[in-house]
Design brief:
Layout (H helix, E strand, L loop, with lengths): L1 E2 L5 E5 L5 E7 L7 E2 L3 H6 L19 E4 L4 E4 L2 E2 H7 L2 H10 L5 H14 L4 H8 L7 H16 L8 H26 L13 H10 L5 H14 L6 H10 L5 H12 L7 H12 L5 H9 L20 H17 L4 H15 L2 H5 L6 H11 L7 H22 L27
Antiparallel strand pairs: 1-2, 2-3, 3-4, 5-6, 6-7
The chain binds carboxymethyl coenzyme *A.
Amino acid sequence: MTNQKQVNELELKGENGKTIKLAVRQPVLGAPGMEISPLFSEFGMVAYDPGFASTASCESAITYLDGARGELLFRGYPIAQLAEHCSFLEVCFLLLHGELPNQAELEAFKRDLGREAVLEPSVRRVIESFPVESHPMAMLISAVAALAGVYHDSTDIHDPVARTRFANQAIAKMPIIAAAIHRHRTGQAIESPRSDLSYTQNFLHMTFGSPVADVSAQALDLLFVLHADHSQNASTSTVRLAGSSGTDPYAALAAGIASLWGPAHGGANEAVLRMLNEIGSADRIEHFVARAKDRNDPFRLMGFGHRVYKNYDPRAMIIRQMAHDLLQHLGSRDEPLFELAMQLESKALEDEYFVSHKLYPNVDFYSGVIYRALGIPVEMFTVMFAIARTVGWVTHWQEMIADPKLRIGRPRQLYIGAARREFVPLGQR
Ligand code: CMC
C-alpha cells in the first residue's frame, strides 16, 4: 500500500497485481476515513477489525470525541460549556435539532414532551408482571419493547414528523418508566408526572413520591447532560444496527438498552459501586490495583479505561467536582466512599501499568457516588444512564434513517470452522 502525500486516495495492490485506488474521506474533525467498500468487489477481500477499533460505521454530525486530547463536543460545543450553562432539555434539543433552542423553541419542546408524558397501561402491566427482585434493566428492556406494541402500527419511520414524535415520546417516557420500575421494586404505588416540575425534578418526584431538594435535581440534570450522547459506543451502534433493518424504533431502543446493561459499558457504574464496597478501606486499595494488573485475574478496575479516551475523560473530571460539591452540600454519609474512590484514582494514576496503558477514570467512575447520595439504589444506576442516553440513541436513529445512503448493517466474517466435507448418514457415524 502506498500512502500518497495528500491523503485523498490510497493505492492498494492485490496479489493478482491489480491496483485499486481507495478514496480517503476527510471529516470536519478527527481521523480521515479510507473507503474500503471496493475491497470485496475488486479483490474478494474483507477488512478484519475485531471490536471495530479502526472502523467508522457511518458518517455522523452529532458528537465528536478526541481521545488523545480528552475532548468531547456535542454539535460542536465543548461538553464543559454545555454542562455549565445548559439544562438537560436544552442539550436534548441541541442534539436532536443541531442548534441550541431559543426561549420559545425550548418552551415548545417542553410542551411537546409534556404531551407524551404518560405511562401506557400495557407498559405498566409489563413492569408489574416482573418479580420485584428482578434487575431493573431487564424490566426496562421489556417496558421499552412493550412501547413497540403500542405504537408500531401508528409509526411510519419514513415520515419525518412521525420520527420526531417518536423521539419526543421516548425522551418523555423514559423517566416515567424508570420511576415506575423503582416503585414496583420497592412495593410502592406508581406516581404520575407533574406538569409544573422540570425533567429531573419530575423524575425524582415520581421516584421518591416526595419533594426533592433543588440541588439534587440540578446535580441529576448535570449528570444527564454529561451522559446524553457519546458517538458510536456499543449501545448506540446497537440501536443503529438493529434500526438499519427498518425495525420498529422502540425495538431498536430496547436492543440498545440491552447492550448498555453490560459491565464493560453502562453497567460499569453499578460495578464501580460494588467494587468500592468490596475494597472497603484505603489499606486494601493496593491489593485491588495489583489484581487489576494481573493478567491471570479477570478483575479490572471498574470505571477505568476507555476505547477512545487515552486521557482523562472530560466527563469524569466534571463529575468528580460535582460529587465533591454535592456531598458537601447534602452533608452526605457517602463522603468516605468518595474519599476511597479518590484514593483509588490517585493510586492507579501513579502506577506504571495504568500510566503506560493510558487508563484514566471514565464517566462511570464517580457517577455512582452521586446517584447513591441522591438515594438511588445501586441496581438502578444503569437505568439512570439509559434515561440520559435515550436522546443520543434516538438522535442517531433519526440521523441514520434520514440518510439516503442507509443500507442494512451486515458485517462480513472470517470463517474459521470446519472445511467443506462430505455428509455421513446417521448409521455410518
Ligand atoms: N483495569 C485494568 N486493566 C485494564 C482496564 C481496567 N479497567 N481497562 C483496560 N485494561 C487493560 C487491558 O487489560 C489491556 O491490557 P493489555 O494490552 O496489557 O492486554 C489494555 O488495557 C487494553 O484493554 P482492552 O480491553 O483491549 O480495551 P478496550 O478498548 O477493548 O476496552 C473498556 C475498553 C472500557 C471496555 C475497558 O477499559 C474496561 O473493561 N474498563 C472497565 C469497565 C468500564 O469502566 N467500562 C465503562 C466504559 S466508559 C462508559 C461507557 O461506555 O458506558
